[in-house]
Amino acid sequence: MKNVAVIGAGTMGNGIAHTFAQSGFKVQLIDINEDSLKKGMETISRNLDRMVTKEKITEAEKTETINNITTTTDVSAGVKNVGLVVEAATENVDLKLKIFKQLDKECHDNTILATNTSSISITQIAAVTARPDKVIGMHFMNPVPIMKLVEIIRGYNTSDEVTNIIMKLSKTLGKVPTEVNDYPGFVANRILMPMINESIETLYNGVAGVQEIDTVMKLGMAHPMGPLQLADFIGLDVCLSILNVMYDGFKNPKYAPCPLLVNMVRAGKLGVKSGEGFYNYSESRKAEKVANQFV
User: Fold this and answer.
1) Which of 76, 108, 195, 232 could pair with 277 as two cysteines, CB 3.0-4.6 Å apart?
2) Residue 124 to residues 117, 157, 166: CA-CA distances in angstroms?
3) Among this protein's residues, is 118 annotated catalytic?
4) Which CATH number applies to 190-294: 3.40.640.10, 1.10.1040.10, 1.25.40.390, 3.40.50.720?
5) Paired residues of 276 in beta bridges
6) pLDDT at position 1, please?
7) pLDDT tier at 288 (50, 70, 90 boundaries)?
8) Is 151 a residue of the active site?
9) Does the domain formed by 3-181 have CATH 3.40.50.2000?
10) Does the structure show a pLDDT above 50 at 292?
11) Which residues contact 248 (CB under 8 A, 6 or more apart)?
12) CA 26 → CA 23, 64, 172, distances in Å?
């Protein structure tokens, strides 16, 4: 289990790779796009530099962490000799099912297959493999190197042995694993996304402006970040995807995405990653400056 693979070099994938590598694991970071791998490694290096500056790690520890990560665009080669694969691709059910079908064929029979999905059914993903007992959810929080929580989601067939292994493994990463069952949105997003959606509805209905809504939640409810700013950091497209999964799963109108959210995603205003969402991040790399507060 000291050898792991991470599928996807985006925000969550490179954060997961960083976390494993910093804890002494040998990591294969896999993405079909070479540019994504390059950007992912640049992000890991920048985040490690900040940790060195803040004296959280030494320069030698930074170098060791980087050396623990190997990048590849070859999925078959990347997962050949690993005990665990953590999939962190785009939150799209068809894509995830395709990936897990391939992983099931390419990986050793004893390899545990985990997904970082924030809402998609673990049971559904496991059903496309011949090892449903070895499929589990590991839902890390963003930014991964900083946030302590990992939601551990058991599918219908996930074994006790695999659950215990992943719980213990998460603790070795310095995380606090919390076991939950496989229902749409799990715990974190089942509670968080309706709050974000209601905040967007509040804006949509003209009750208050963006900054006013966020100020109320920060100062009145002691949230470190307002829900609209948080939505920008998560990605409005990701928020919409999660709400759609929950709406489809529960058939309850309280999970129906606000029309304003739908239109913003259609317009390409996705939050930090597009430079604009509820806030504008395009001026003087404002997004990066804000993000640096958390690393």
Assistant:
1) 232
2) 12, 11, 19
3) yes
4) 1.10.1040.10
5) 271, 280
6) 80
7) low
8) yes
9) no
10) no
11) 184
12) 9, 10, 14
**Residue 54 corresponds to which amino acid?**
K
Q: Which of 18, 36, 119, 151 is catalytic?
A: 151
CA atoms within 13 A of residue 39's CA, in its CB half-sphere: 12
Instruction: Indicate if 189 belongs to the active site.
Output: yes
CB atoms within 10 A of CB 263: 11
Residue 82 has pLDDT above 50, yes or no: yes
Q: Reduced to 3 states, what is the DSSP secondary structure of residue 121?
A: coil
Tens of pLDDT, residue by residue over 48-72, are 999 999 999 999 999 999 999 999 9
- The reported pLDDT for the residue numbered 228 is 98
* Domain 3-181 identical in fold to domain 190-294: no
The residues, ordered by sequence, that sit 6+ positions from 55 with a Cβ below 8 Å of its Cβ are none
- Our measurement of the distance from residue 179's CA atom to the centroid of its chain's CA atoms, rounded to an integer in Å, reads 17
pLDDT at residue 268 greater than cutoff 50: yes
Please tell me the predicted confidence (pLDDT) of residue 18.
98
Catalytic residue from among 36, 118, 119, 121: 118
Answer yes or no: are the C-beta atoms of 7 and 13 closer than 8 Å.
Answer: yes
The continuous run of DSSP H or E covering 114 comes out as: strand 112-115
Q: Which of 91, 121, 139, 170 is catalytic?
A: 139
pTM score: 0.89
Closest to 19 measured CA to CA, from 84, 77, 81, 78: 84
Q: Compute the average pLDDT of residues 131-150.
A: 96
The residue ranges of every structural domain in the chain are 3-181, 190-294
CA distances from 166 to 28, 31, 85, 116, 170 (A): 18, 23, 11, 13, 6
Are 227 and 273 in contact, with CB atoms under 8 Å apart? Answer: no
Catalytic residue among 189, 197, 199, 274: 189
Please say if 292 is a catalytic residue: no
